[in-house]
Sequence to fold (618 residues):
Amino acid sequence: MNNTLSLTEFRIRLAWRNRLFIFFSLVVPLAYMFFYVGVFGRGSPLAVSFMLAPVLALTVMGSFWGLSMQLVMFREQGILRRFRLAPIGAAPLLASSLLSNYILLMPTILIQLALARWFFRMQEFGNLPAALLLISAGSVTFAAFGLMIASITGSMQETAVINNAIWFIFLFLSGATIPLPMLPGWVQGVAAFLPPTYLITGLQQAMLGNAPVLQIGPELLVLAGSAAAAFYFSVQVFRWEPEAPIRPRARLLACAALIPFLLLGLYENITGHRREGAAVMYRQIQRPPEPQSR
Amino acid sequence: MFHILRSEFRVSLCYNPAVPEPIVQVSSLSKSYGPVEAIRSVSFEISEGEVFGLLGPNGAGKTSTVEILEGMRTADSGSVRVCGFDPQMAGAEFQRSIGAVLQATALPEKILVDEALEMFCGFYGRRVDTAALLARFGLTEKRKTFYGALSGGQKQRLALALALAHQPHMLFLDEPTAGLDPQARREIYTIVEELRAEKKTLLLTTHYIEEAERLCDRVAIMDHGRVIALGTPRELKARSAGTSRIEVRLSQPESEATLLKLDGVSECLRANGAYVLRSTRPPQTIVALVKYLETFGNELQSLEVASPSLEDVFIELTGRRLRD
Fold:
């Protein structure tokens, strides 16, 4: 535990000394928020609440990019070899990645929430504790995916290619950029298998629909289950050395971490509950504001 | 009861310096990477307090051998014991027993020198006087410098400090001076000589002849995955059939044929106004040369004698130069 905390502190210090990290983890998410909520929120408090969810989700999703690239870079530069000599082990090293990522992520999330409230005139946060719980679970899940990707890729180029492919799927097929109800039916079917969909719709339910924690239980469970699986598997197949072979088992385990989303995706495609819920919320923000009685 | 058994088990795994067995035992060690046999049945032992060198060209199998001893690679066959542990089976206790400077390694560019020392000491659960450690390795002024801003020699001194911070029983130095300029190399030599004087047990790999001769108590010469010679540098050179080189300058010229007849001389060449004699018995050759010159009224202006080096030993054994 001490090693995990010590490594976490070290990773946070390194991050704050890295200008690129500050740019991509603070400046870019805030700039994106101003663009996205500014354009699609149309000054309507309800629309701002609806549009804030994908913005927060995108900030959380960025975790897998940063962590996977950093770990692969550390491995390529021989930094992990030096850590391997010390009595640390893979689990504390990877746990420190999740913890430091979470600690570094939260200030950006809080700034985005504050901007939504005071700059975009969002009237209420809905069930904020439930939203923060989802954000926490999402942060660990996407970070754990990053660790998994780092374990099954051999070089930074390979990691970047895989990250890009995943990123674009997440970005355009899960409702992160275009609201889910606006997407064609088959895309909505695909979206039901994607992790960001559950983070986005869960956040919309909590913030717009004021949903209690129990109502977003499936989202929390599927994110947490997948995070636990991805973390466990990434510890099992972790590679300290660039020349260490990537075994086929590692890739299988990486896919296995997505099983919770596959199961929930099947269920959602059969029942159609999520699509309906998203459509109801979308119609709600489309309605013109009721005239105030004198 | 269970607690007692567990304690005994832990004690039996710990390195016990009172046990007189060698601190490193390597027996019939082999390792292949696909079709390439990197290590072929290598055996040697290292005693406590000894500086042991693995000398050989690139690709000789030195780094593979060291990395197996450090527990970073698995052997295909053979047995290895380091500080009483099998490196493959041992965990944190073994890692606490050894320190290492790896050949290809780094730290993050933006870590400060003192942060690195404190963090690594923390991993070993030790409170170390980092100021003293920094002073010892000449890094006091660099303590608030980022790792990325250090010179090659400073990085290597930091690597040594990190390897020694937890006071390991055994230290591995894999090519510690590779790629360093002569000044930085001398600094590392000085540190290793201090460690040698402190009776630290060291395994050093190198492809620099002078490094092995200067720093090591015993040397194993490796080539193509095998140990082809093992002994003290003096023993290895004495075992060699190589000849010493005697270079003399005379006040008057002499015929090469005459000098070739001197006791022990096997070859005589004239180069740049000097005579280069190759002798199997240098003392006798020098005495005979001085007598001859006195007899015929010639004078010795200068004399230089070079013993066979480990390079000569390597050439004799392999037919190649060490850096071919």
Summary: Chain A has one domain: 2-286. The longest helix of chain A spans residues 45-76. The interface with chain B takes residues 2-3, 6-7, 10, 13-14, 17-18, 74, 77-79, 81-82, 84-89, 240-241 of chain A (CB under 8 Å). The mean pLDDT of chain A is 89.
